[in-house]
Design a protein that fits this description.
single chain; alpha/beta; seven-stranded antiparallel beta sheet; 22 helices; binds pyridoxal-5'-phosphate
Length: 595
Amino acid sequence: MEFLCVEFLCVCAMSKYHTIYLWSGPRSLSTATMYSFGQRNDTQIHDEPLYAHWLNENESIYRPYREKLIESSDCDSVSVIRKLNSLHTNEKPIVFAKHIAKQYTNFNSTKSVLFETKNENVKIHHVFLIRNPFDMIKSWDDRLEIHKEKCTLDSMSLALLVQMYSYIRETTNKTPLVIDSSLLKTHPREVLSMLCYELGIPFQEEQLSWAKGPKSFDGLWAEHWYHSVHNSSGFNAETAAKESFVTFNQEQLSVYREALPFYELLLRSAIGVNMLCPNSSKIELYNPLMPKYGEFFDPKNADIMIWVGDKLYPREYAKVSVFDSAVQGGDAVWEGIRIYKNKIFKLQEHVNRLFDSAKALDFQNIPDKEFVFSAIFKTLAANGMRDGAHVRLTLTRGCKITSSMNPKFNVFGCNLLVVPEWKNVQNPTTYDNDKGISLITATTRRQGPATLDSKIHHCNLINNILAKIQANNSDAHDALMLDCEGFVAETNATNIFMVKDSIVHTPTADYCLPGVTRKTVIELLKQNGVPIVERKISLSEFHCADEIFTTGTMGELTPVISVDGRRISNEKGPITSSLQKWYKELTLTMGVEIP
Ligand SMILES: Cc1ncc(COP(=O)(O)O)c(C=O)c1O
């Protein structure tokens, strides 16, 4: 993690002293994290300094060390926090305090003290340590003889952590720091390096391991609670042996159901969690100096709002059920639609084709067209999209009551998805319409009426994806697909045209999608007096064409410069150029106005 070093020096220079509060629920690896910071040569550790306050406020709570702790500690939360904010020394300029959030019983009435310091050299940080409530619930019972409390939403502190998170966010105007214990366990070096970077302190290699046994800064309850952490010497070692299988009872399941949304809310900000795909098990190691998510990602699309079913969700919340027909069998239909200068191009045509495809597949309980139009308009409005955008419109057969391919189990009606993205022809995910693209012929054949009618614009795209894989593996831009007789059908993603001796030819729409752009191009050719023939065309005719171009809503008109290694032309042909011009004019003048 060398890239961190330069950065933290700049941040470090700004603050001489730090107070780091670690807020967590119980059983979340907080003691191990405290031990990790205890390894630093510049840090003083305070183990649950609000514990005595909590016990003092709650007389009914039994702990074997209750009296002793209360007698020997400051029980006033405000005075405890004020002290933590001012205990820095030049030898130990970092104060680290581990807190179980629920111990801060009067958070709401005293929270302003959390950032209170008279010393401008002190930087106060609040870090949240979270743990999947599934694992928390699972590990709860083995200490029941001490705490005798049920595992509830409240005892897990998750709702309070969310409340604190919201306060810290408001006060600092920044997303608070969150670490997830499972990532900390599997990737301690990465998570701690990134945490230290965010705190503006240098990461120390010593933080990754510690000696077994009690520590001088352990709270006096350690002998009751810290058995397993005392046996550990690092994050992995502490829990690696603990993999077990559990069956929840009804009560545990209810608690898990209630707790999960709170955990997931916090998880979205956790260091190393891929915000755009929170279920991914892959840790996102970020380099703050590099763009996130690679060359195909437009950062503007991180914050889009997506329509699912009957409402809008931020991108990372936009999900369908695992019982949705699209997941169960690719049983869905779709359209790609473009937005140009306040207008939606060919909206009616796309929605008509969506409904025809749904009818052909015998979808039931389809929302009416007005609902679909309104969902599209609301989605565009929510994203402020009036130009340079693309909408992926999908209608699934809906959620099934049990996993199956049988549409009889679709008892909930169709599910509408409106996925809008900022995308235009400059986007690296689309084609270069000036330089053109190369094609190879795929061995996978395009289906026709005898198998799966290509007139249905369905989401069962594996056939096309296989062809695309062949193109990718051959370093071609796309794949040409043949019909079952060996005539050219279309590409894996677009319709195709060729020009020979100033006459334009395109395959009949028997083995290809009857594309909206294909139809528009045929109309443009006719309007401009260019002869156009729809017929069966063989591959060798394409190899010998004067010009070839593909058509599709997203890519518009794209020149093809080579097919199977045969050079078609060195530059965009005259008919392709004219058509591109006519098509552009149309996109800027025609379309349904966005309200
Ligand atoms: C296989 C295939 N062919 C052609 C097209 C182009 O159709 P359109 O012009 O309606 O966008 C698409 C677009 O979805 C497609 O998936």
